[in-house]
Amino acid sequence: MMSLEAITFDLDDTLWDNRGVMARTETGHYAWLDEALTDWLSRRGESRGRFAERYPLAAYQAARGRLAERFPPRRGDFSWLRERALVELLEAFGLPRSAAWLWASAAMGRFHALRLDVAPHPEVEPLLEELGDRYRLGAITNGNLALHRLALCRHFRVAIAAGEIQAPKPDARPFLAALARLETAPSRALHVGDSWREDVLPALRLGMRAVWIAPDPPPGALPAGVHRLAHVRELPALLTDLT
Ligand SMILES: [Mg+2]
Questions:
Q1: Are residues 12 and 126 in the same domain?
Q2: Domain assignment of residue 139, yes or no
Q3: Residues 6+ away with beta carbon under 8 Å from 100
Q4: Are 199 and 232 within one domain?
Q5: What angle do CA 202, 156, 135 make, to 5 degrees?
Q6: How far is the CA of 121 from the centre of ligand 1 (A)?
Q7: Are 216 and 229 in contact (CB under 8 A)?
Q8: Could you tell me the CATH number of the domain that includes residue 24?
Q9: CA 215 to ligand 1 center in whole angstroms
Q10: From the CA of 142, how far away is ligand 1's center (Å)?
Q11: Which keywords label this protein (predicted)?
């Protein structure tokens, strides 16, 4: 077996548990917008009622869905969809276009701050530190995180937000881009992720090895080249076995 020289990681639900983060971020930035906008309007002596009463969270989500249908190449660029949906709703609420853009962008600032409030598993920091001495590390995420603001990302030579390059996983392009920038070949690289469809399958198709983070053992045998781990903390032991 070719020796391994690079490892790429999925982030959400691989290096941290993401369920709570998304729920808090989704409701949090919308509630912030509603509050701040109400304040601003009342200070200007305008009364239009409350934004979130006229357009509850479900209306915002529906607006994002419609935009994704209208602009298929953008369907994985969740930040773009959010900001455009906010602008549309704010204009429909009666704000001039320039104010709608300003408020949408302020709400997205709030969104990204909340989205970064992730708690990586405690083992992750020392794990990346140690692996970084032996392998070239990369990150490939479909999530809309401001990666450069995440302290953990200093361990990655390359960090790709696949939605923003309009080729979300399972598209091969973010994997190929990562491999190129890590100056390695698929046969010498391993991808680690929790999604069978978005992490394991595309890595295998390219000829990479794959580690599937899945707490429950699947029925039946896994294809050659795939290893299942219940938790990313088990990765160093597996690498010792592999090499
Ligand atoms: Mg994931």
A1: yes
A2: yes
A3: 86, 87, 90, 91
A4: yes
A5: 80
A6: 14
A7: no
A8: 1.20.120.1600
A9: 13
A10: 8
A11: Hydrolase, Magnesium
Whether residue 231 sits in one domain with residue 130: yes
What pLDDT digit, counting tens, does each position of 204-215 carry?
A: 999 999 999 999
For residue range 110-162, what is the model confidence (pLDDT) as tens digits?
Answer: 999 998 889 999 999 999 999 999 999 999 999 878 788 889 999 999 999 98
Residue 195 in tokens: 């999604």
CA 11 to ligand 1 centroid distance, Å: 6
* 62 Cα: distance to centroid of ligand 1 (angstroms): 24
In the chain, the number of structural domains is 2
Q: For residue 1, is it within any domain?
A: no
CA–centroid distance, residue 27 to ligand 1 (Å):
21
Alpha helices in 71-185 (DSSP H): 78-92, 97-115, 124-134, 173-181
- Please tell me the distance between residue 35's alpha carbon and the centre of ligand 1 in angstroms: 32
The Å distance, Cα 240 to ligand 1 centre, comes to 24
CA neighbor of 131 nearest in space, from 178, 192, 172: 192
The range of the structural domain enclosing residue 207 comes to 6-17+118-242
**Domain match, 91 and 33 both:** yes
Give the separation between CA 145 and CA 122, rounded to whole angstroms. Answer: 20
The answer on 75 and 174 residing in a single domain is no
**What's the CA-to-centroid distance between 140 and ligand 1, angstroms?**
9
How far apart are alpha carbons 155 and 243 in whole angstroms? 22
Q: How far is the CA of 74 from the centre of ligand 1 (A)?
A: 20
Rounded distance from Cα 171 to ligand 1 centre (Å): 15
